[in-house]
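Box S1 | Example of a co-folding query
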Amino acid sequence: MYADELKQKVTLLKGIGKETAKSFAKIDINNVSDLLKYIPRAYENRKDTVTLSNYRMGPVNTIVEITDHDYIGFGIKKTLKVHLKDETGSAVLICFGRNFLSRKLVIGKKFFLYGNFEYKFNNLQTSAFDIEEISNKPVNFNKIIPVYPLSAKLNQGIIRRAVSEAIDELARYTKNQIPEYLIQKYDFVVRNRAIQNIHFPESLQLLESAEKVLRYEELFYLQLTVGRKSKETRKFHRNDFSHPKKLEELIKKQLPFSLTIDQEKVLKEIEKDMESDIPMTRLLQGDVGSGKTLVAFISALKIIEFRGQVAFMAPTELLAKQHAENAARLMEKLGVRLAFLSGNVKNSQRKPLLSALAKGEIDLIIGTHALFTGNVEFKNLQYVIVDEQHKFGVLQRMALLNKGDSPDLLLMTATPIPRTLTLTLFGDMDVSIIKTMPEGRKPVITHLSIIDNDKKVYDAVRKEIERGHQAYFVYPRIQESELSDSLKNAESMYNYLREEVFPEFRLGLIHSKLSEDEKIKTMKNFVSGKTNILVSTSVVEVGVDIQNATCMVIEHAEHFGLSGLHQLRGRVGRGREQSYAFLVYAKELSEVGKIRLKTMMKFNDGFSISEEDLKLRGPGELAGSRQSGFLNLTYADLVRDFDILEKARTDAFKILDSDPGFLKPEHTVIREVFERCEPFKGALDNE
Ligand code: ADP
Ligand code: MG
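Box S1 (continued) | Returned holo structure for adenosine-5'-diphosphate
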């Protein structure tokens, strides 16, 4: 449905003036096509009768006769009470603010009535109802009516009339967008019928059919695009990797430990992908501390050995820097040419760096999102690694991929991604999992403590530091009076801990408002053991890896989400020593807050924790709206419609197998989907 007719302005429709058009424009409805895509959030079934006696079964939908009027209260505050009856019983309408209804609801007259009733004060009653005089052509009765999301000055009446007008005048211009044989295979209704029924269902069955085809259609086109992407083959000839893996052997020899079985397995999976003609899209899942980074580094050596370039992107400067230092420690001896890039690298250094990168004189560049900014050029980017991938948008990842000629992509995450999302965004994605932790790790022991008991926590930490270990203290706020709440903040607590609690130790403070130089200095001091305690905000959440730190104190733990808490706790327990997490909470704990803290006590692994997280938030939050919100789908929901998605995927991929050029500009649904869908903008423009 992309016919020019549907692109006409809504003011063309009868009854829509300039003012109403303005209200529509506020919710991005400008033309008829937009209006037809404004789908109801619910429906009211005013077709099937539900009598007063059946009020427990749902909203009552019946024909009533008015029997009496009276009032509750006195004077201007009095409220009209309308007594009525249907075949099965009697009830009362409480007409708050609608005393004028006494004129319309004349005793003895008959009306259609719809509303949710409850039994209260000896009466079956309601104050939320819709009523219409009985007639042969009722406006809002004897049918299933749509309930639209409201905003601005729009009410149900205005929207219903506008949509109804649009359907009567223009829905016939919508064309089927799915190949005929698929329409037959699934017994789909034709598109204009679907559009009509998604707004004004002739029956519940037809509503279901309409939803089915529109959801399928949207997902089908989504899959055609991702499918085409995932079938892309390399445009250049791949290196012949048949030589011995010299660098890999060398790095393994240097390590003070051997790789875990899972790390070896994942490395093999990655190497196999690299040898294929189809670019790799692989997700590496593994709990915090499972050793993903090392796997990524080793896999990079394979590319580097054959003179390809590798980009390694991390979400924070702190983390990128740490990776760069580790990489330098491990790889410089092997002759790997390394560079670090972030927004804070000064121009005098950046210029020669960028030119070296463009000339191919850098093998591995590690950095933040600065890596995909405009002036960064590679000579031969073959491999892109993204750490903590959930911290990046799809767009950002694509921007980096576009710096090479279909490079391999490795995404790393400690948070499992729902399969619906991997299917949608990548057509599919191979997943590697590291389940086993490096040998000798002990699970972190987690203690809960109420805020008044913090002295005990401080004493426990003191003992650990006296043994030569280090500790993190994490707070939800950076500074005082940042927000008007009474939460502890890192800056004041740094002073307090330093002066009052741990005068014998050295403390460091880190948060996002400090300058880069200060942050670097603070981290260096903590890494080298010069400082015993690092006071921080959640900036240390991702990736920071200091094995000698054995205590993680999180104050106001109730203010962190489950995955945040898990990530923070993952900063300790990274070496052979026993580590501890202290979750200090305030007295007033919400139910969810309690469950979160208990979950942290009960589970140590990220998979169980993210499962609990999913339960607490509901799948919509995690997979549907939050993670894929940017897809902005009109009809489909990635969680609810998973089975449709899989069908659409199979169908779309089959088509692409026999006809790779199937997707044509005249397949206009896809334009509609993609105009609103960031990651795919311009997807058709290179036809
Ligand atoms: P992740 O990124 O998965 O959270 P890291 O890659 O940061 O984990 O690794 C955590 C720590 O474990 C690092 O200090 C790393 O050197 C160490 N490590 C990695 N692999 C092993 C192994 N096989 N045996 C022992 N320690 C390992
Ligand atoms: Mg990591």
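Residues 48-142 form a domain with the OB fold (Dihydrolipoamide Acetyltransferase, E2P) fold (CATH 2.40.50.140). Residues 292-293, 387, 543 surround magnesium ion (ligand 2) (CB under 6 Å).
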